[in-house]
Specification:
Elements lengths: L2 H11 L7 E2 H7 L6 H10 L10 E2 L11 H10 L12 H4 L10 H4 L5
Parallel strand pairs: 1-2
Helix pairs in contact: 2-3
């Protein structure tokens, strides 16, 4: 597993119950803001226990791809979210934006990486 993939899984693990975020937001938080597709691919490939993959959705609240959209809808509904066949209702109100990535020590010290 790459360092990026480890960061993605750590970020997804922090999404609170009843909240969702986007593939792009996870990519940004993991330090690669243009890697939303890579996040989506990792979500599709990784189905291990303990990581709430179902809380990562497409832009504007679209459910996006998932091994079973019916399962994704059921898991989100079980957390109290209102879900239509295609999207999460009230996305802007329940969107989790996480914390911005901490600057590296080199950047914090004013050095180039």
């Amino acid at each position: 597993m790459t360092p990026f993939e480890r960061r993605v899984l750590a970020i997804v693990s922090r999404i609170p119950v009843g909240r969702v975020t986007t593939y792009g937001e996870v990519a940004r938080l993991a330090g690669k803001p243009r890697a939303a597709r890579a996040v989506g691919n990792l979500m599709r490939q990784s189905t291990g226990p303990g990581v709430p993959y179902h809380r990562v959705i497409g832009a504007a609240g679209r459910l996006g791809g998932y091994s079973s959209l019916a399962l994704k809808r059921a898991l989100l509904a079980a957390e109290g979210l209102t879900v239509t066949p295609a999207r999460v209702v009230g996305f802007d109100k329940i969107r989790w934006r996480g914390n911005p990535p901490a600057p590296s020590r080199a950047r914090a010290a004013g050095r180039r990486q």
